[in-house]
Design goal:
single chain, alpha+beta, Beta-Lactamase, Alpha-Beta Plaits, 5-stranded mixed sheet, 53% helix, elongated
């Protein structure tokens, strides 16, 4: 319930912020900022609404598990739950239910287990069956065995998300919820639970989070995401490593828009993004920080490799043409680097910006480096 309240509060706060700030942005000349702000708020609200739906489903699952538990308390036997109860749950929910008998190491699944995995509905010596199952990785086997051990220890509730290979060979995400049923002597006797296919939910969340992290125009990381990675990379630096920052800015980009039109300018920006990604070193983070300005971050031990990358960008950006016409697409680059604990991200950003300014001042179409 607290999660629902927090999500509702977050949505309300974002909506209120949008109502407060959008008139201010609308009165400024920076229409791009207003559009970006609106898109960011819209995507954030979408994510929270989706998470609100997931939380509601979680509450529903928990209630169902509690219902099962109460049913067990009402019975006078410690054997498996009647098939009719599982059938009712299956029809209402569309997921796999199961019950593991600790004493006999026997597990009972609802019939959907055959549709998803082609496993039998009743498996004896389940612990050994898991160890011998070729479709599971060693890590998956260890996680399953650990969950079973937790049931034996009397852990009341467990929730995990795992990737399992289905009967068709497809790998899908599943959420596993298990409660431990105890007898009158408070001894664990059964592990009962629900196995739910959450692949679509995972994909939707992943897609929305990708959109939040991405500059929608070029497909590169946006400024906020680059800053997040930069701070994280700085904190994780080892003694012999550098965090290198490259700042790239197009030379006289306004002239391209004025002479050839904004479609030409849009094309150039997307091509620059493609060139930067194509020649980027492995594990480099490439982003657009606004307008015709781009940024690259990389943790490396060899600064010369990054200089080679910068030189390649100077060359290949100048080769970009619009409808076969050379439209003078050149760029300037500022380079800087930091070792662990030497600079904050903001300080490193200022150093890269200063190096870029030096490249512009010295005549453009060049690289300026402070290392």
């Amino acid at each position: 319930m607290k999660k629902l309240i927090y999500n509702a509060a977050a949505i309300s706060t974002m909506a209120f912020s949008y109502i407060v700030y959008i008139p201010f942005l609308n009165n400024t000349s920076n229409k791009v900022a207003m559009i970006n702000f609106s898109l960011a708020v819209f995507l954030c609200i979408l994510i929270y609404l989706f998470r609100y739906k997931i939380i509601c489903m979680e509450i529903s699952y928990c209630k169902m598990l509690e219902y099962i538990k109460n049913k067990f308390k009402d019975t006078q036997r410690n054997s498996r739950m009647p098939v009719e109860q599982y059938e009712l749950m299956r029809k209402n929910g569309g997921y796999i239910t199961f019950e593991w008998d600790i004493k006999y190491d026997c597990i009972y699944f609802s019939k959907e287990i055959k549709d998803y995995f082609n496993y039998p509905e009743i498996i004896f010596s389940f612990s050994q069956y898991v160890k011998n199952l070729s479709k599971l990785s060693q890590k998956q086997k260890e996680l399953l065995i650990e969950s079973m051990e937790n049931v034996k220890k009397g852990v009341e509730f467990q929730k995990n998300e795992w990737i399992f290979q289905t009967a068709s060979g497809e790998k899908r995400w599943f959420e596993v919820r298990i409660i431990t049923q105890k007898n009158d002597f408070n001894e664990p006797v059964l592990g009962i639970g629900i196995l739910s296919d959450i692949t679509e939910h995972k994909e939707k969340i992943s897609k929305l989070e990708h959109e939040i992290r991405t500059d929608l125009f070029t497909g590169l990381f946006n400024k906020t995401t680059v800053e997040y990675y930069g701070e994280k990379m700085l904190k994780g630096l080892k003694k012999d490593e550098y965090l290198v920052m490259m700042m790239l800015d197009m030379d006289d980009f306004k002239d391209i828009n004025d002479i050839y039109g904004h479609p030409a300018g849009d094309y150039v920006l997307k091509e620059v993004a493609n060139v930067m990604l194509k020649y980027a070193p492995e594990k480099a983070k490439v982003g657009r920080i606004g307008g015709d300005e781009f940024i690259v971050l990389l943790v490396t031990k060899n600064l010369d490799d990054f200089k080679d990358y910068a030189n390649a960008l100077i060359k290949h950006v100048s080769d970009i043409k619009w409808n076969g016409v050379d439209i003078d697409t050149n760029c300037s680059i500022g380079l800087t680097a930091a070792k662990a604990g030497r600079y904050s991200y903001t300080e490193l950003y200022k150093k890269a910006d200063s190096a870029l300014y030096t490249a512009k001042r010295l005549g453009k179409k060049r690289i300026s480096s402070d290392f």
